[in-house]
Each structure stands twice: as C-alpha cells, then as structure tokens.
Amino acid sequence: MSQKSKIAGWIAVGALAGALTTVSLQTVARGTLAPLPLEQLQQLAAVFSLIKTDYVEPVDEKKLITDAISGMVSGLDPHSQYFDKKSFKEFREGTTGRFVGVGIEITQEDGLVKVVSPIEGSPADKAGLKSGDLITKVDDTAVKGMSLNDAVKRIRGEPGTQVRFTVWRRDEDRTFPVTITREEIRTQSVKGKVMEPGYAWIRVSQFQDRTVEDFVAKLDEIYKKDPNLKGLVLDLRNDPGGLLDAAVAVSAAFLPEGATVVTTNGQIEESKAIYKALPEDYMRRRGADPLASLPAALKKVPLVVLVNGGSASASEIVAGALQDNKRAVIMGSQTFGKGSVQTVRPLGPDTALKLTTARYYTPSGRTIQAKGIVPDIMVDDTAEGSPFAVLRMREADLEHHLSGSGPEVTDPALAKEREDALKKLEADARKPAAERRPPEYGSDKDFPLEQALAKLKGQPVKVSTTLVERKEESKTE
C-alpha cells in the first residue's frame, strides 16, 4: 500500500462519451523527463515552420501544437487522450454524475456517432433516442470522420440552448431530425427493489461520486422492507465504469475485510498498487466509512452478479473481485474487456494528458484486457437467445487496443456470425416497434434477471446454448 499512497488525487474507471477507461488523476506532473530525440524534434520543428510559411492560408500556431499533441497521443491506444481546456472540464464533470448536455452515452461506429444508451429521464430519453441510433449530423455539421471528442464538444453546450441531430435508426431503416434542449444532467446510478419475499435486485448503472452513498441507502431500504433476504442480484449489465474507489467500495460491501479487490501494475513504480476491502482504500474524501451502516448479513447473503458485453472497467473489477473471492456467481455474457489504467497528468492549469500507464488484474492475477470476465454461467439476453450479442463492440474491436497477457487469436467464424446477426437485425426491422423494444431491466420480463433469481432459489437455470467464450482477436494496427 506504500506505493499507492504516492498517487495524489483520485483514480477512476469509467466512460466519458463511451470511451471506457481506467484513470489515475494526479495533482502534479512527474518531475523527471525522458531524454529527448533531438533529430526527430528538429524534424517536427521543420514541419511546423513549413506549415507556418508555405501553407495556402495562415494557420493558428496554438492549434498546430494542440493537433500535434493530439495526434501523438491518439496513435498509442484507444484510451490515451490529450485534454484541452474544454474537454478537461467535461472529463471532470463526467465522474460527478452532473453535466450539461442531452444525456446520452456515445461511441463511434463506421465514422458515425452511435448512441450507446440514453440516460433515463434525460432530454435525449424524453426525445425518444434509443440505444443503437446513429447520429449523422450535429446541427448542420456531418459527423463522418469527426473525432469522438469533437462530437462531444458539439453536442454539449449551455443549459437552455438547443442542438439538432439527424438520426439514422438502422433497425427501422429511416432517417429523421430530433431537436433537443440541453440541460444539466443528474444521473441516478443506483436502482433496486425487493422482487419477491426473500429476494431483491440492485442495479449500478455507473460508478460515480454519489454511487457508494446511493448504493448503501438503497440496500438499507431493501433490508428495511425485507430483513430476511435469502438472495440478492447485483446487476452490472451495460455499466460502462466510473470511479475505482466506488468499485472497491461496492466490492467491499460483500467481501470479508481485507480481501483483495484489484491490483494494478505498470512500468513506473507508482502504478503498482493493491486495493483491498478496507475503508482506507475506498474512503476518498469521505469523513466516515460509508459502508458502516450496512447489515452484517450482507457479507453472507447468496449473491448473483449479472454482466454482459456492455459491462466494462469498474463493473469488470467488481465482477472479477467477487468471482475470484468465490463470493458470487457471475451470470450473463462475456464482459467488454477494458483492463488498462490511464494516468491523467496536468500540463497546465486547464489542460492535461490521459496516458495509459498500467494494466489492472483481478485478485487471482488475471488480466481481463481485451478478453473480459467470462461468466460462471452463460445466460442469453432473451428466452429466444442472444442473436445480436456478436455485434456488440468490445475492447478487442477497438483500433490500437492493447493486447492481453497471452497470444492473440483470430476467430475465423466470427465474421460469419456477425454477418448472420446483421441479416437477422434487418429481418427484425420489419417487425412492429413494440416487438423490438427490449424489456426494461428489473421488470418481470427481464429474462437474465429471471434466471438469476432461479439460481438463488436452487431452481433450474436456462443456460445459453449459443454463447461461447470469445478469445482476443488479432490486434488492429
């Protein structure tokens, strides 16, 4: 733990605009600098000078330098990033659960902006945007070829202002405009309820500043309604990540005191750390142990954790910790596979560099990078199967992704599976919209939750006959 104490600030594991990441934010930059390659720097200076003097029109010097830094970083891996003043502010806002925008998590697909999910109750949700929608224009600007960071800049703005999207909904084969008024978004990251006497469900949709307190409050509420719980389902499906201390706290709520939750390891000494189920490892800026009020029975209650391909980073840390400590049964489908650590180092008062500095490991020493957590029991998304699971983007699909610890494997059958899934998606597009809408998590039509409850009761579980473990695919350079 001595090395961990050297890390100032906080560590986050999460998603900013769908860019899943694990981050260590430091208050000061490192004092040592690597030797500089003078010949290459002279080349860089020569290019800078030629652009300044010979380009067809004047170019802003500051923009040239910013673009050079961004290009240098973006070629490393999908999660390293240069933050200018605006994007650094937005990055910090993203972990608080409060920001101004329309309320969507986004990623990129085929050069377009893809909606991963609208935040419940947000302007985007009220406007009818759905998971899988592709945004082709923001106002009058086409997003094709635009970086995700630039797209976020255009989507966000001042509260009360409007933004106009042109949306292509692939499963309905139609394009339509949507005008949304921006507002301050306050996300609620924890839900839960008693499903039936003796059995409860609690969902964490993202690990944010208030998640631990909300998690404890919801569990206290559940135990007041039913103090004799026989089983609990922890739902981490489509949880893209968040703050590491929140992930450690949620893990610690179920684990014996002192059990290992996660370790990190990288080239520099400060990236080597062990996080345990101890208050000092999750009490960032908190005056008292937030887990102190939880009933002792929570440490022993039978537990099932639901995950899927959208579970990443912090949610994978929790699932891996509970799996390796044999505290829970993991059910669902293989997770995203985000297992690298990024350190955020300020470059000035308003700018910073987010740089991959380490991998993280589960308590048994497994790296989940580009592989993910493989459930103990594979369960389909619906009673009819998981026909579109193969279309989910995973860490291994990202350009320049870091490899895991083992050799990379190419799955020759994967392309065929994806082709078949796309054909089925096209066929389903002809069905009425009501038939295509997936059941709400926590509802009585939630098939994976139904199977999790069956497992807790000792009843038969409908195990998937189609889902298989995905090996890491060949790295894209």
From TrEMBL:
Q: Which InterPro entries match?
A: ClpP/crotonase-like_dom_sf, CtpA/B_N, PDZ, PDZ_6, PDZ_sf, Peptidase_S41A, Tail-specific_protease
- The segments labelled Disordered in the record are 420-450, 458-477
Task: Give residue ranges for domain PDZ.
Answer: 88-156
Please name the PROSITE patterns in this protein's record. Answer: PDZ
Q: Where is the composition biased (Basic and acidic residues)?
A: 420-448, 468-477
| UniProt-listed SUPFAM superfamilies | ClpP/crotonase, PDZ domain-like
Which keywords, in A-to-Z order, does the entry hold?
Hydrolase, Protease, Serine protease
- Pfam families assigned to the protein according to its UniProt record, in alphabetical order: CtpB_N-like, PDZ_6, Peptidase_S41
Q: Which family does it belong to?
A: Belongs to the peptidase S41A family.
State the PANTHER family in the record.
Answer: CARBOXY-TERMINAL PROCESSING PROTEASE CTPA (PTHR32060:SF30), TAIL-SPECIFIC PROTEASE (PTHR32060)
Q: What is this protein called?
A: S41 family peptidase
Taxonomic lineage per UniProt? Bacteria, Pseudomonadati, Pseudomonadota, Betaproteobacteria, Burkholderiales
